[in-house]
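Throughout our pipeline, every protein is held as a single compact record rather than as scattered files. Nothing more is needed to write down the fold, since each code stands for a local backbone conformation. The record that follows is passed on verbatim for readers who wish to inspect the format.
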Amino acid sequence: MKIVVTSILVDDQAKALAFYHYVLGFEPKHDIAMGQHRWLTLTSPKDPDGVELLLEPDAHPAARTYKAALKHDGIPAASFGVRDIQAEYTRLCKAGVRFTKEPTALGPVTIAVFDDTCGNLIQIAQKH
């Protein structure tokens, strides 16, 4: 068994696609109309056949409550690995990304947390 798709709940799929593609740098993989929503996935440009990130609508009321609770408590909805966290932090800051936690060393990793503009906190992490 392996992970093929993982999802992140977003409040607006078009806005999320713009952020995750143009700001974070993920590549669109699938964009399939499904009524008022889409099956919208992206992958890492370094692993286009790897795990797909599904930008899933938060249309269900429980999804919105869950997202709000995580964000209120400062808990990231996802974590993405980076090779050089300081360079990535600088790049994203220049792109206007708002960080809630600057790069912080925590034993074997350094993490930073930002707001994805779609209702989530996202963590980036560099292993040492």
About this structure: The chain has one domain: 5-127. The chain has a mean pLDDT of 97. The first strand starts at residue 5 and ends at 10. Strands lie at 5-10, 27-34, 37-43, 52-57, 78-81, 99-106, 109-115, 121-127.
